[in-house]
Amino acid sequence: MPIYEFRCAKCKTTFDKLVREEIKPQNPVICPNCGSKRTRRLVSRVSSYRSGSSGGGDCAPSG
Ligand SMILES: [Zn+2]
């Protein structure tokens, strides 16, 4: 499951939260520090797993 990083717009605290499903406006992420709903998801800087090399197709126009 992906872990996203959030930032509270009220107390400016940053926290990471494990998101199981898509974040919807009706159930926003609550700030664990002040309990505010004004949180914004930051750009994911969580180290992701590197998938193995997959066979890619090189389509070079011959001729
Ligand atoms: Zn807060």
From TrEMBL:
Presence of the UniProt keyword Transcription regulation in the record: no
InterPro entries linked: Regulatory_FmdB_Zinc_ribbon
EC number, as in UniProt: 3.6.4.12
Entry protein name: DNA helicase
Nucleotide-binding among keywords: yes
Enzyme's top EC category: hydrolase
SMART domains: CxxC_CXXC_SSSS (SM00834)
PANTHER family: REGULATORY PROTEIN, FMDB FAMILY (PTHR34404)
GO BP terms, alphabetized: DNA replication
Annotated Putative regulatory protein FmdB zinc ribbon domain residues: 1-44
Pfam families: Zn_ribbon_8
Keywords of this entry: ATP-binding, DNA replication, DNA-binding, Helicase, Hydrolase, Nucleotide-binding
Taxonomic path: Bacteria, Bacillati, Chloroflexota, Candidatus Thermofontia, Candidatus Thermofonsia Clade 3
Gene Ontology MF term list: ATP binding; DNA binding; DNA helicase activity; hydrolase activity
